[in-house]
Design a protein that fits this description.
Helix content: under 10%
Distance between the termini: 50 Å
Keywords: Elongation factor, GTP-binding, Nucleotide-binding, Protein biosynthesis
InterPro entries: GTP-eEF1A_C, Transl_elong_EF1A/Init_IF2_C
Order of helices and strands: EEEEE
GO molecular function, one term: translation elongation factor activity
Mean pLDDT: 84
Pfam families: GTP-eEF1A_C (PF22594)
Low-confidence stretches: none
Protein name: Putative translation elongation factor-1 alpha
């Protein structure tokens, strides 16, 4: 476990960051190259982060050239990462 030296948003120091904050932070004895875009960080001893094998979400698709069906694997933008996600089961569609 590493000690967090500082937390900030746009170079302004913070005492605490919460969900949805885009932050920068510096950890003792951790190099920038060791943390990649899209990583989730937290306190593994006091409040470990759960791993999700799947999730259910609402997706809005605009002007797609072909029919989207189960098994479709688009690249989605999640925060600052680009991740390939497979649509296992499409439960409903609305055509507007």
């Amino acid at each position: 476990m590493n000690e967090c030296k500082t937390i900030g948003i746009h170079y302004d120091a913070l005492k605490l960051a919460v969900s949805r904050d885009y932050t920068q932070f510096y950890l003792k004895d951790v190099q920038v190259k060791d943390i990649k875009r899209g990583f989730v960080c937290g306190n593994s001893k006091q409040d470990p982060l759960p791993e999700a094998e799947s999730l259910q979400t609402k997706v809005i698709v605009m002007q797609h050239p072909v029919q989207i069906q189960n098994g479709y694997t688009p690249v989605l933008d999640c925060h600052t990462s680009h991740i390939a996600c497979k649509f296992k089961e499409i439960t409903s569609k609305i055509d507007r």
